[in-house]
Amino acid sequence: MATKEEIIQKGKAAVLDFDEDAVKEVAKEAIDAGVNPAELIEDGFTAAMNEIGDQFESGTLFLPHVIAASEAMSAGVEVLTPELEKLSAESKARGTVVIGTIEGDIHSIGKDIVATMLKIAGFDIIDLGRDVPVKDYVDKAKEKNADVVASSALMTTTMITQTQIEEQLKEAGLRDNIKTMVGGAPVTQDWANKIGADIYAENSGDAVNKLKALFP
Ligand code: B12
Hints:
Elements: H1 4-16, H2 20-33, H3 37-57, H4 63-87, E1 96-101, H5 109-120, E2 124-127, H6 134-144, E3 148-152, H7 156-159, H8 162-171, E4 179-183, H9 189-195, E5 199-200, H10 204-214
Helix pairs in contact: 1-2, 1-3, 2-4, 3-4, 4-5, 5-10, 6-8
This protein binds cobalamin.
């Protein structure tokens, strides 16, 4: 039987090959071999997507390749999601998180993974989807009495809009009772500090750990 490392590398290669069927096969193999689905997603699929992004940037790959790779990755995540949900031993209610990808930005894969992992950790997730107007985060947070407003931004041009979440929550008088969390590839701890967001998390595991610490 293949080792965990071999399975993860196979998963990475399958995304790099844009091979949806192979990605699904590896996902099934990982489940059978007892590999933690989160590790396959982070160290296999996501690592491949980062390479795809680099090649897209340097002009060796084009948009259809990026689309094919992201579809392959999503197919793999779909196979793994029920397995991830089974792993959730915790049914403890921890708080409500409104999450979405910021206005102008349609990247959703990372946000979906963060949403799934937080759900598994016991948070109530209200997923607004992608290209979410700032007003919608604020309105939903108010309506659902949310504890956390989390936004994903995958582009340097859209992360700027995360600032408006801070501003509009303040204007609505909600900011003092809500934690804000930001993430996405170009987002950093420095950026979070700069805009006054409470939490920055690098990936889904980090997001879960940081929110669990705040909502034990
Ligand atoms: C896949 C992809 C796409 C897919 C998205 C499919 C989908 N349904 O999401 C498609 C093909 C649609 C796409 C479109 C575009 N893309 Co694109 N895309 C990517 C790519 C290759 C990978 C992103 C990805 O899914 N990674 C895998 C996931 C798992 O990782 P992740 O998103 O980073 O998420 C993790 C963490 O960041 C974090 N996280 C994410 N969100 C959140 C939220 C919170 C709250 C927290 C705490 C953490 C967190 O946790 C996640 C799990 O670990 C990136 C390259 C890259 N390196 O990011 C480019 C990239 C983001 N795209 C880019 C561009 C330019 C575009 C387009 C403008 C291309 C075009 N010419 O049309 C359009 C954008 C249109 C728009 N208005 O949004 C650029 C952005 C450059 C910039 N300005 O900053 C990048 C960086 C590529 C590049 N190097 O040039 N893209």
